[in-house]
């Protein structure tokens, strides 16, 4: 079972449920990392903001 190639069908087996939970955790951690970095905007600006500041 590969959730990236096949949709999740219910009732799902244990491997499919674990794979789905792992993928959800990955997205949550990425969101947490992004929001943490954005909290330090003055010292860690986004690349778009850096390009804007250099052109001004």
From TrEMBL:
InterPro entries: PhnI (IPR008773). One of its GO terms (biological process) is organic phosphonate metabolic process. Pfam families: PhnI. It comes from the Bacteria. This is Bacterial phosphonate metabolism protein (PhnI). It comes from Chromobacterium violaceum.
